[in-house]
């Protein structure tokens, strides 16, 4: 039995963006303080008890930060492994470094997931001229070439429609190590938000149906039309991944749903070892949000309920979408969440709105 | 048409306690920063973008604080009027100083409310030996003697059961100016949480039924058993008070409900020119809480919906009640709100728990 961190304890968060901000806001009602560590000041600084600006490569600074808090978590998966290791030398890091290592590299992630018997889209490594032909042979002539590292929101990806497009695509990605992914004929995308405690208890939120625009998540809607049987299968898959990683906290698992008649109805697209954009609807449709449950898990607290009291569609506010804040604030049934970012640059996540209605 | 403060603006809050903390937490999702001003560091400091420690009597410091923010509000009604005036010389103070002046003095408050035709319990001033007999004559031999100023949570009150007890009670309250209130044979206490915008729009939350323990609010339950007709009357009374005060923000109006057959079913007990403990249930049973609606109002934003998606009982955690945090965190259907106060002194409000269930 792990001891829960008592109220008054401090959660250290690596990363100062909107996810760190919403984690801080969720920690406060539990009587927990947050200390943010980020390479640049960010929106989380405005709601945290303490903030440190430092490079993620500055392991001495990371160690001092970790020593000053009671547990360390992170809000983005590209925290350098050295930073996580430096922190872990001083204080527990949750989710653990294994989740971080796996999620930072698409090839490692897909290999790991397939290795525990969970379906993923067909994939092949592309890391040299020699690998190009083998990849086409394994996957076919259509697919998506993705860099193994640092890709997100549609960045670091090129669609391939014929074998001849692969090499130029690889060049355009600067010959960074890549995976070629086969296209999966999916009906829609869902995600599983699973939270796992230190003792291994898992709880799940209802599965949202996710849509994208320009490679960025656009909406998450709950309930999704997926059947209970297939939702149960999706949860089972997400739990298997979390358990195999020895995961503590909220894990986001994006899946392609191939439809009720597919032999293998669900295929994992990717995982995010953190609270996830497709779980932002939980803030207004559940008693305990994904953010609070992540904090509960990493602090060794009992997990909170994951039930849903309302139906909801979450819509991201990207770039100048946020200019409509006044109309959104006046909309009945809409809850607005702005991230406090000073500049509405194109493609930047500025906030989201949750449109709720009574459960159908 | 008043211009709404755009995201990125700063709300100044006088007072650093749990109400300031919950106001700060509610301002963040609107993209608004908070700057707390308090005579001692308090729980709000941990979640605010900026904090200033200063005496409320230090008008120069208050002025500088007010100048650095876009609007000033307050979380307790005993902000010195001089402090509010100093702030208002630099930037708008909402709710206005009139609400503060009226609410700081029971005699003034009751006189004001009665003056606009709203029923209050019978009362008479007690401020000298000469006034004692007149008070007994007006009110009768049983009642409650209350100091006009600085009483809260049952402090500064003495129950009177015979005429001879009045003078000793007055002495025990150090002959501070008092009111003697007649006892009202009420069925139960309700409160109205009304929010009023700068343009005069009013919205209401559902009325909670409130119970007390040792003079401190114990529970607020929604729905209360009051009839729709009488709830409508209560809201009308609260709106009349808010409008007469030119009020902006959330106003808490405590009322005695005398039962369905009473000639005058509702009598105002007292008002609080701020978010109110009996509205803490809105945090988990409504899309937009009293805290967010207060911030919206003082920032000139559109008011948010006040509808309720769940039934709920709020229970205060007083003193060592908070030691049960782990059991409360594990309770299904319970949302915990701890205030981050370091010491669980007897009688101190340490947090609250909202126990919710689907609407009946």
What key phrases describe this protein's structure?
homodimer, 360 residues, alpha+beta, Rossmann fold, Dna Ligase, domain 1, D-amino Acid Aminotransferase, Chain A, domain 1, 9-stranded antiparallel sheet, 4-stranded parallel sheet, 11 helices, globular
What is the count of structural domains of chain A? 3
Gyration radius over CA of chain A? 20 Å
* Helix and strand run of chain A: EHEEHEHHHEHEEHEEEEEHEEHHEHEE
**Uncertain segments of chain A of ≥5 residues (pLDDT<50)?**
none
The CATH class of the largest domain in chain A, by name, is Alpha Beta
Could you tell me the CATH topology label of the largest domain in chain A. D-amino Acid Aminotransferase, Chain A, domain 1
**Annotated CATH homologous superfamily of the largest domain in chain A:** ATP-grasp fold, B domain
Please state the average pLDDT score of chain A: 95
Most extensive interface between two protein chains, with residue counts:
A-B, 44 and 44 residues
Spatial gap, N to C terminus of chain A: 39 Å
The percentage helix of chain A is: 25-40%
The global form of chain A is globular
> Please, how many helices of chain A?
11
Roughly what fraction of the amino acids of chain A lie in strands? 25-35%
CATH architecture of the largest domain in chain A: 2-Layer Sandwich
């Amino acid at each position: 039995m792990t001891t829960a961190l008592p109220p008054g304890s401090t959660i250290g968060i690596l990363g100062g963006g909107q996810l760190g901000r919403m984690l801080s806001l969720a920690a406060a009602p539990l009587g927990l303080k947050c200390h943010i560590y980020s390479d640049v000041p960010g929106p989380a600084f405005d709601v945290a008890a303490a903030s440190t600006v430092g490079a993620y490569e500055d392991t001495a600074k990371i160690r001092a930060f970790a020593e000053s808090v009671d547990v360390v978590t992170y809000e983005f998966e590209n925290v350098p492994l050295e930073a996580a290791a430096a922190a872990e030398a001083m204080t527990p890091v949750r989710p653990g470094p294994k989740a971080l290592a796996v999620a930072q590299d698409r090839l490692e992630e897909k290999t790991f997931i397939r290795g525990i018997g969970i379906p993923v889209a067909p994939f092949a490594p592309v890391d040299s001229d020699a690998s190009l032909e083998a990849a086409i042979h394994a996957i076919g002539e259509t697919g998506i070439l993705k860099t193994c590292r640092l890709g997100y929101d549609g960045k670091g990806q090129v669609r391939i429609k014929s074998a001849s497009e692969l090499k130029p695509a690889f060049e355009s990605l600067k010959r960074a190590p890549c995976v070629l992914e086969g296209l999966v004929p999916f009906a829609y995308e869902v995600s599983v938000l699973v939270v796992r405690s230190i003792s291994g208890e898992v709880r799940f939120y209802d599965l949202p149906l996710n849509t994208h625009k320009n490679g960025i998540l656009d909406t998450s809607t709950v309930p999704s039309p997926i059947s209970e049987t297939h939702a149960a299968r999706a949860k089972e898959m997400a739990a298997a991944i979390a358990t195999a990683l020895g995961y503590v906290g909220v894990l986001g698992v994006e899946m392609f749903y191939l439809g009720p008649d597919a032999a293998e109805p669900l295929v994992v697209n990717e995982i995010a070892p953190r609270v996830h954009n497709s779980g932002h609807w939980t803030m207004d449709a559940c008693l305990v949000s994904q953010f609070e449950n992540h904090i509960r898990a990493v602090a060794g607290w009992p997990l909170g309920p994951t039930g849903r009291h309302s139906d909801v569609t979450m819509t991201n506010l990207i770039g100048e979408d946020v200019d409509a804040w006044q109309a959104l604030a006046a909309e009945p049934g809409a809850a607005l969440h702005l991230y406090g970012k000073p500049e509405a640059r194109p493609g930047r996540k500025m906030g989201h709105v949750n449109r709720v209605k009574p459960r159908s």
